[in-house]
Design brief:
Helix content is about 5%, strand content about 40%. The protein contains two helices and 25 strands.
């Protein structure tokens, strides 16, 4: 039942009952620079995202926790705060990726290493199904609910977001996040996000639409001494037992999402996960019959 406002580096509370307003600044322990984001928990705690970190103000008005971008958190000013029902808190940074806090307050940093499209996060919008929509400098990315859960529970998990970085009539999509909040929702659930010289209207339903897998367009097998471009069976000399397989699937939609599996029948009995690698290498193959599948 209060109104909150940030005035540069200060925070001001205007009680709904008309009582005397209250302010927080450096003298009260709020010394994090320019304020970019305010987020209120169901318990009444106010999280303040700022240039150099996050402060948590309890319902009694006392600062209960301060997290710094030079110590616990990822680098870069905090521009977004999202509370999840399972107790995780996601902090979006300008240039540092995401700081992920579990229900015990332990912090882990997510970045392009964990699959993020980029390390700039202006806005994060949670969906009802548990997925997340992110706005960065290089466009809009959508992280599925499965990837969100994977990132929260498995430090080695790598997300594979869908990226939307093209706008009709705009040469280059560049998301903007200087104002708070950077975008919002329409009445029908679409997301409206600011971009340089444009406004992007994004339908979350488009992100959930699964595209058919692209067909494999190119395969070349080669040894140390010769190339094989024809699909029929080929013979390899006994002293030429190294094999390189080059392959590629060509698509103009979400090409960064293409992942490969291959198997050399006669040597392997299960598929090998190649991630986005487009080459397989074998050495010292014994005499026999082989078939390469991808």
């Amino acid at each position: 039942d209060n109104w909150w406002a940030s005035c540069g580096t200060q925070l001001v509370q205007f009680p709904a009952d008309g009582s005397v307003m209250r302010a927080w600044s450096k003298a009260e322990g709020l010394d994090l620079g320019m304020i970019h984001k305010l987020a209120l928990t169901r318990q009444g705690d106010l999280w303040v995202g700022a240039r150099s970190g996050v402060a948590v103000i309890g319902a009694n008005g006392e600062i209960t926790r301060v997290l710094s971008t030079t110590r616990e958190l990822a680098m870069g000013e905090v521009r977004e705060i999202v509370f999840r029902e399972n107790g995780f808190t996601w902090l979006g940074h300008y240039g540092g990726g995401i700081s992920l806090l579990d229900s015990h307050g332990k912090v882990r940093v997510l970045s392009v290493t964990q699959g993020l499209h980029e390390n700039v996060v202006h806005r994060m919008l949670p969906e009802a199904d548990g997925s997340l929509i992110l706005l960065g400098n290089r466009g809009i990315s959508w992280i599925s609910a499965e990837d969100v859960t994977g990132l929260e529970n498995n430090p080695s998990h790598r997300a594979v977001p869908r990226v939307f970085d093209q706008l009709p009539g705009v040469d280059q999509f560049e998301g903007m996040g200087g104002a708070m909040p950077a975008g919002g929702r329409t009445a029908n659930g679409d997301v409206v996000l600011p971009a340089l010289l444009a406004v992007a209207r994004f339908s979350p339903a488009a992100a959930r639409h699964r595209l058919p897998a692209p067909k494999l367009k190119f395969v070349r097998l080669s040894t140390n001494k010769q190339d094989f471009l024809a699909p029929e069976a080929q013979s390899i000399q006994p002293d030429d037992r190294g094999l390189l397989a080059h392959y590629r699937a060509i698509t103009f939609v979400d090409s960064h999402l293409v992942r490969y599996q291959y198997m050399l029948e006669g040597r392997e009995t299960d598929w090998v996960d190649a991630n986005d690698r487009e080459i397989a290498h074998y050495e010292s193959l014994p005499p026999g019959r082989y078939r390469f599948l991808v």
